[in-house]
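Weekly puzzle thread! Below is a chain. First person to post its structure in token form gets bragging rights.
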Amino acid sequence: MATRPPNFEIPADMREVAEKSVEQAKKAFDSFMGAAFKAAGALEESSDTLQAGTKDISRKALTYAEQNVAAALDFASKVVKAGDPQQVLHLQSEFIRSQLQAFGEQAKDIGSSAGKLATDVAKPRGK
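Winning reply:
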């Protein structure tokens, strides 16, 4: 014959404390999940910003590379057509001066874009 365990009753005070603890745990978990979803959303926004910014910088770099190659080919064409060494030296001097100026402007533009991107990615997101 199987014996029945004695009736075990949880005191009302203990039951109330346990119920409150469970409620507090649920609230804490909900709060944690809310914060986790918010953080994931902010990370996604930062990732989108970073991706768009790097695409912009990449496009600029390719455009500048294309311009620089075109300038070098133009220079080479002029050198081939030069009549004397003096003209070659003049063309070379002109090419170097114009390319240094172009490189400076290009570096400044890409640096400015990179700085803006870093600021945008680090910017706290709205609530």
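Puzzle host: Confirmed. Bonus trivia for everyone else. The helical segments are 12-81, 85-122.
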